[in-house]
Specification:
By secondary structure, the chain is mainly alpha-helical. Among the domains are: 73 residues, Multidrug-efflux Transporter Regulator, Chain: A, Domain 2 (Orthogonal Bundle), CATH 1.10.1660.10; 57 residues; 34 residues. 59% of the residues lie in helices and 7% in strands. The strands form 2 sheets. It has a 3-stranded antiparallel β-sheet. A hairpin with a 5-residue loop joins strand 1 and strand 2. Helix 1 crosses helix 2. It starts with 11 loop residues before the first helix and ends in a 7-residue tail after the last helix.
Length: 241
């Protein structure tokens, strides 16, 4: 699914500055195959785009979750080919969700600072429909304080630009949660068959190894299925046809 049609043309110095890393880091990642090569323009100057920025953001998120460089290489190697900046941003949001639940109470000013933009009441209502924002202490969210799911905030803010009503977002969230719960129950049943009963240590160890793989597999399968559904909806031929 290609959302962005025009990518910024950045030099390696500009890319590093935008991503908050050094030029040496960008070149190191390139030699390791973590970044695709730049487009070579006039005067043999390499130019980078939105996909490179998104990959650097994903790598930073994986590092924040404690993955080693070798584990990051394996993770990126398993990504399906042809992912654009939008797809990579979705993967980054999923990686961020591996962290323990972090629900915090923040002021409206802090909420907007973390969102990176001003938020109107309609936008706050949409974040509330997504389950990203809830009422603060006392059950109110009237401009005073808000309970915010920090792990979902970045994804929620991106969804604000998607033209869906709060009702549609809530319905979509319900569908996703129901199916995710069913998938988790089935996978849990399979895992229970692979570890000794009540061996908590073995369960935690297996979960730590399996969770990134399972999440990646589910996300990839969902993206492919959704792409095919959208193609069928608008009358496009299948990718292989």
């Amino acid at each position: 699914m290609t959302i962005e049609t025009e990518e910024p043309a950045l030099t390696v110095d500009e890319l590093a500055a935008r991503a908050g890393v050094t030029v040496r880091t960008v070149r190191f990642y390139s030699t390791k195959g973590l970044l695709p090569p730049p487009v070579i323009g006039p005067r043999r100057v390499g130019h980078y785009g939105a996909e490179h920025l998104a990959r650097l953001a994903l790598i930073a998120e994986l590092q924040q979750q404690g993955l080693t460089l070798a584990a990051i290489e394996r993770y990126l190697d398993r990504l399906p080919p042809g992912l654009d900046a939008h797809d990579l941003a979705v993967h980054r949001a999923v990686v961020a969700s591996w962290a323990p639940d972090t629900v915090e109470t923040v002021t409206r000013e802090e909420l907007e600072r973390r969102a990176g933009r001003a938020l109107g009441e309609q936008e706050v209502d949409r974040l509330r429909a997504m389950g990203v924002v809830g009422a603060g202490p006392g059950g109110r969210a009237d401009g005073g304080s808000y309970r915010v799911d920090a792990g979902l905030l970045r994804l929620g803010v991106r969804l604000l630009d998607v033209p869906l009503s709060p009702e549609a977002i809530l319905a979509a969230r319900t569908v996703l949660l129901e199916h995710a719960r069913t998938a988790a129950q089935e996978l849990s049943r399979l895992l229970r068959e692979e570890v000794p009963e009540r061996d908590a240590g073995a369960v935690r160890s297996l979960s730590a190894h399996m969770q990134p793989l399972v999440v990646q597999a589910l996300l990839t399968a969902f993206q492919r299925s959704l792409t095919e559904e959208l193609r069928e909806w608008i009358g496009e031929p299948p990718a292989d046809g």
